[in-house]
């Protein structure tokens, strides 16, 4: 079964499909089996230094390799996983897989960023689970980053500040994802113990078929970078699809770019090969002691 699924690329669940009760039940059964059978895998998308041209960080992105439906992307099952609560278990699996992969890339000084669902962020066991994933994998915490969407941190600001502070005591890095879409009260940002701000793709590539010759909204990108720098945050721009996007972002002072222009998400084995090739061609500095 895995053979057919591995190559399949068609996406499969449709939004309407998930609306009927029987379909949802089928999905829930499938999803529980998928956790038992370990059908979830993690792919990685490079975040590239806009000045250095070197991959400094990777974003871990989950994929479901469904036995009959093929590769299923997160937009089609994360909402369900959140509503059903199963995202807790899925999140643990992803975190453990990503930490185990990241151990191989420490020698190249590459950080791995894992997305957290808002539901996970509100889980009182989160800090213990992150600590466990670090311990069981042996990953140096400085190579783990957690991405939390702007909308998730806005709800209960007191709680957000507390959880962020606890996570930071583990020695990991924190990022605010999809920044610019959530109507943040900028005054809050100052109190968030984060390292990285990820500018939402909407301002970089725009929507589907957005402009390739310019940033979709350069004025907003510029304003967000200015503010991030004032708070001493690293800036990652998502949705970089052209050399023009990359050039303009570099000029505006963004630190890292992530998007199809640099690379689509690839398997862990693909990253092994890619980092080894960068290393042997001399673009990567020899690894510092880790
Ligand atoms: P995100 O965290 O903002 O991740 C970026 C998404 O944009 C990824 O989609 C990535 O493949 C896509 N992308 C990156 N560069 C480009 C580009 O240049 N053009 C276009 N058109 N798309 C680009 P993906 O993997 O489908 O993930 C979608 C969302 O699902 C993620 O948005 C994140 O919110 C969620 N997600 C993905 N993996 C996980 C996970 O492990 N856990 C949780 N809780 N959520 C996840
Ligand atoms: Mg993300
Ligand atoms: Mg994002
Ligand atoms: Mg997103």
Explain the overall architecture.
- It is a single chain.
- Helix 4 (87-105) runs parallel beside helix 6 (126-137).
- Helix 9 (186-189) links the parallel strand 6 (173-179) and strand 7.
- The N and C termini lie far apart (40 Å).
- Residues 1-11 have low confidence and may be disordered.
- The chain has 290 residues and is α/β, with parallel strands linked by helices.
- The longest helix has 19 residues, at 87-105.
- An eight-stranded mixed beta barrel has the order 1-2-4-5-6-7-8-9, surrounded by five helices.
- It is 42% helix and 20% strand.
- Bound molecules: ligand C2E and magnesium ion (3 copies).
- One magnesium ion binds next to strand 6.
- Residues 24-279 form the EAL domain.
- It comes from Saltatorellus ferox.
- This is Cyclic di-GMP phosphodiesterase Gmr.
Layout of helices and strands, plus pairs?
Layout: H1 2-7, H2 21-37, E1 40-49, E2 55-66, E3 70-72, H3 78-84, H4 87-105, E4 111-116, H5 118-121, H6 126-137, E5 144-149, H7 150-154, H8 157-169, E6 173-179, H9 186-189, E7 196-199, H10 218-230, E8 234-238, H11 243-252, E9 256-258, E10 266-267, H12 268-280
Parallel strand pairs: 2-4, 4-5, 5-6, 6-7, 7-8, 8-9
Antiparallel strand pairs: 1-2, 1-9, 1-10, 2-3
């Amino acid at each position: 079964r895995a053979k057919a699924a591995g190559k399949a690329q068609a996406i499969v669940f449709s939004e309407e499909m998930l609306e009927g009760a029987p379909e949802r039940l089928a999905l829930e059964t499938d999803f529980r089996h998928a956790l038992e059978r370990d059908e979830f895998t993690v792919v990685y998308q490079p975040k590239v230094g806009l000045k250095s041209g070197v991959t400094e960080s990777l974003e871990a992105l989950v994929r479901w390799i469904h036995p009959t439906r093929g590769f299923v992307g997160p937009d089609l099952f994360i909402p369900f996983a959140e509503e059903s609560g199963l995202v807790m278990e899925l999140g643990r699996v992803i975190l453990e897989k990503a930490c185990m992969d990241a151990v191989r890339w420490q020698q190249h000084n590459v950080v791995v960023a894992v997305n957290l669902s808002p539901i996970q962020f509100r889980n009182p066991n989160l800090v213990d689970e992150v600590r466990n994933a670090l311990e069981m994998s042996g990953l140096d915490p400085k190579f783990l980053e957690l991405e939390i969407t702007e909308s998730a941190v806005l709800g209960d600001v007191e709680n957000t500040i507390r959880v962020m502070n606890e996570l930071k005591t583990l020695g990991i890095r924190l990022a605010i994802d999809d920044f610019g879409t959530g109507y943040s009260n900028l005054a809050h940002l100052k109190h968030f113990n984060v390292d990285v701000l990820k500018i939402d793709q909407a301002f970089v590539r725009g929507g589907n078929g957005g402009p390739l010759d310019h940033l979709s909204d350069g004025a907003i990108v510029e304003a967000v970078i200015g503010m991030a720098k004032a708070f001493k945050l690293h800036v990652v721009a998502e949705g970089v699809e052209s050399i023009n996007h990359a050039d303009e972002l570099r000029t505006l002072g963004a630190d890292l770019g992530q998007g199809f222009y640099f690379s689509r998400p690839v398997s862990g084995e693909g990253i092994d090969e890619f980092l080894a090739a960068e290393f042997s061609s001399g673009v990567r500095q020899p690894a510092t002691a880790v």
